[in-house]
Amino acid sequence: xxxxxxxxxxxxxxxxxxxxxxxxxxxxxxxxxxxxxxxxxxxxxxxxxxxxxxxxxxxxxxxxxxxxxxxxxxxxxxxxxxxxxxxxxxxxxxxxxxxxxxxxxxxxxxxxxxxxxxxxxxxxxxxxxxxxxxxxxxxxxxxxxxxxxxxxxxxxxxxxxxxxxxxxxxxxxxxxxxxxxxxxxxxxxxxxxxxxxxxxxxxxxxxxxxxxxxxxxxxxxxxxxxxxxxxxxxx
Length: 235
What we know:
Blueprint: H1 3-29, H2 38-51, H3 54-78, H4 90-112, H5 119-140, H6 154-165, H7 174-196, H8 202-216
């Protein structure tokens, strides 16, 4: 694996940290729905029907719809992987810039309100977060690396266990493990901020995506196969 590919993978791990933080903030502060785990939201939607919980249904449904919209926007901006893509296609940075702008809008509203918003306001902010992570989710697919993801990581965990069970060396599952740890670490940090310093919680998300955007500017436009490296990760 080239040095540029390693740097790319570390930035993707940072995006998975953002996913964990955003999910934790959504669960704890914005109505109890996920912003990236749509499988979980579909389950919550079903549970809300069984319980007759209209609020949960509204939040889970809004998150799903806005995540889908974000995915569509992200794909339109980032496009699909091409054989002659560089390690970090410029279109990905373009899409992540839009994600960053959405997060800035959410952060500004949240911090202006002092972290105390109405139920309707929380629903709107949850929707913005879900849209942002939808953009991020589809944008990462432009890399064209099989299974490389920052949002749907159950498959990553499954593949990691299968490869370890098959006796594969740790280096073959290193990226999978880092993505999972990034998600958990982000959820931990996001949860701590949500519980102890909720007003500044959005700064963690902005720091993650902002750092990725800044670091991506230092990639050279060297072209490489869109399907090489990190094939061990399955989303």
